Amino acid sequence: MGVRTQEGTTTVAQATANGLRGAERVDFILHRMTTAEKLGQLNQMAGGQQIALNSRITDVERDRVRAGGVGSYLHVAGAAFLGDLQHVAVEESHHGIPLLFAMDVVHGYRTIFPVPLGIAATFDVSDAELAARVAALEASAAGLHWTFAPMVDIARDARWGRIVEGAGEEPFFGSAMARAQVRGYQDRDLKRPDTIIATAKHFGAYGAGVGGRDYDSADISERTLMDVYLPPFLAAAEEGAASFMVAFNDIGGVPTTANKALVNDLLRGEWGYDGLVVSDWNSVPELLNHGVAETRTEAGALALLASVDMEMTSGIYASDMLKAVEASPALQAALDAATKRVLMAKDRLGLFDAPYSYHDPVREAAAMLTPDHRAAARRVAERSMVLLRNDSGRLPLKPQPGKVAVIGALAADARSMIGSWKAQGREEDVVTVVEALRNRLGEEFVVYEPGVGTRDVADPAAIAKAVATAEAADVVILVTGEDYNMSGEARSRSDIGLPSPQKVLAKAVLATGKPVVTVLMTGRPLDISPLDSGDSSILLAWFPGVEAGPAITNVLFGDAVPAGRLPASFPHRTGQVPYFIGHNPTGRPADADLSKDSARYMDIPITPAYAFGHGLSYATFEYGNLQLSSSTLAPGDSVSIGVDVTNTSGTNADEVVQLYTRDPVAQVARPQQELRGFARVRIDAGKTKHVTFTLRPEHFAYFAPYGRFETDAGRIDFGIGAGSDDIRLTGSFQVAGPVIADGPAAAMATPVSISEE
Ligand code: BGC
User: Fold this and answer.
1) Residue 370 and residue 347: Cα distance in Å, rounded?
2) Is the CB of 309 under 6 A from ligand 1?
3) Does the CB atom of residue 201 touch ligand 1 within 6 A?
């Protein structure tokens, strides 16, 4: 290897010199590749194992690249380092095919934003797009072409640790957030060197693992798959996500990594998806553990035939498949198709013409943690915060609140403020809550007492010290919750209460009777009943990123008015999960006062503690002047629902106007509430804005009997309000005839217009 073809040029150079571009150039290259070289293109190696982040390239790696034994590296970074490796691929390998460099850039690269569940809580697609855009600017400058984000898995079981990585429980909402993030990473032009390939993951029902355990089986109906779990993937595909990742788990016994019906037939066939599908980490050899393959070669064949193009980390395709492929026309055809898609991904990025465009160390040095990026991270963090309660209006705090006691180890825990998936985020970049409060109020007004960490044994002396500090203060800010390592991959919990030492601390601090405001840090919905003191103010801050402290402080003092909303319901108890608003009605609907035998737990309320879409404000809003353009909605037509929202307070603020619908009589039971529109709207004190949603009959299509998406004729009920639990205005209209739709309603976007009154 390392020997050049005719006249010392590579195959890529020849194709380019021949004037070939796009698919023609890719075909020219493909036809000149051996089976082993094709398998090499499908091989994705992990930098963390073979080559450390930013390390020097070892001779072993150079040789592998020269020999065409690898198509991509993940968990690598650094413009100069990756540029060197790219030179080897482009100039010293036989064909000159550039490498793809990938990383999990999930909520920022160096400038860390709130965790994805927090970004979702902004209830604003432009915030989600902004966070992804900034991440792409930094990651691309560091030599990366490809991120394994967004995670678009619907998550309805808060025990599942990876709920932190997605947009929560609701498929219409998840689809909107998926689209926004794809736009942010790819900016509709992958040829630009400041955009990166987005990956919709983990196709198709990773979030449905039984019991909320990570990697576990999804045993769900086809209807639930089609109407709930797949819509965000369809939305991402429609938005142009250039790659998909298959999930680790199985659906009804078929691991997705080997699911030909789902990946090849549905995604590629029905949806027409021509992007790059990558396995999850080691998920191909794990087919042996699933018990659907006996040998590595069999596992590889299943994945390849399912049309999983690139194999992450195990090397099965490159090392175990040569003979099998040579003996099987079906595998040869699958290999050609997969190799073509890998090469097309490189072509989409413009790498055949400008292979070094991502490897400019000067750009890299200038791109990281800029004032603009920090400002964006702070803005998104402020907007992600959800005011869960404010019983007696303790928040916002007065500008000079006197002596402030900050209690709780999380208040100074920079690592937790970054959250899971940190990419190149650094603790020293984080401004913590304690630091921000001291900067704002002056050292002498802020006393910090950790009390107890999230995992320590609650030492009575340390708790007593925290209590004494609280008692000596005018105001107490209790920072509590989970730490960053209690959610995320393989971080499922059987009990989603506050960690026990935090319960002890919270109870002791609340018992002082001092005015306490609680800042809750978490990556998942929690049972926060111990924080209920009867007069509580609770600000949910998630894991807010590098600007955690300033963002939290700005919200506490009212410089930023909270308007975030819950993307996933908070249960009263762990035993109430999975809880989600899109539950089907039963024959015995839950009866609030326990007078009938009904579908409920007898020991907790029928509603969650805090429902999807819930979030309070320092302002107050009134909803009125409901306008429905027509009482019937005919096939091919649309209906608009308008409402006036007035800020009746003296505080300028955002309101999140939400539209929920319900199809009360259909061929199958339909969810009790489905989000069909939302808009985060800035409304100044005393002002009114008019918000209009436009719906078509397809907005109610569901996976009906006989496997088609249909909207039935008949009544649709709707409600508009400030949360799924705070519906202010209701109405209904008739769909005038049945409609066959192309896909599930949840994948659709709803046009919203906002005007001044
Ligand atoms: C995760 C993926 C991730 C991959 C690469 C896996 O363990 O499930 O979400 O993209 O690792 O880091």
Assistant:
1) 30
2) no
3) yes
Q: At residue 6, what are phi and psi to the nearest 5 degrees?
A: -50, 140
Q: Ligand 1, residue 148: give the atom nearest the CA.
A: 10
Is 214's C-beta closer than 6 angstroms to any atom of ligand 1?
A: no
Residue 444, classified by CB atoms within 10 Å of its CB into exposed (0-12), middle (13-18) or buried (19+), is: exposed
Q: How far is the CA of 732 from the centre of ligand 1 (A)?
A: 44
Distance of CA 568 to the CA centre of its chain: 12
Q: What is the reported pLDDT for 61? A: 84
Smallest CA separation from ligand 1 atom 11, residue: 281
Give the pair of three-digit tokens for residue 441: 């109020």
pLDDT at residue 2 is higher than 70? no
Q: 280: Cβ below 6 Å to ligand 1?
A: yes
Q: How far apart are CA 52 and CA 54, in angstroms?
A: 6
pTM for this prediction: 0.98
Cβ-Cβ contacts under 8 Å for 9 (sequence gap 6 or more):
17, 96
DSSP state of 96: -
What CA–CA distances, in Å, run from 557 to 397, 400, 415, 603?
A: 5, 10, 24, 38
Mean pLDDT of 199-215: 98
- Asked if 496 and 526 touch (Cβ cutoff 8 Å), the reply is yes
pLDDT digits (tens, 9 = 90+) for 572-584: 999 999 999 999 9
Q: Are residues 451 and 463 in contact, defined by beta-carbon separation less than 8 angstroms?
A: yes
Which of 44, 105, 151, 280 should be mutated for ligand 1, with most atoms under 8 A from CB? Answer: 280
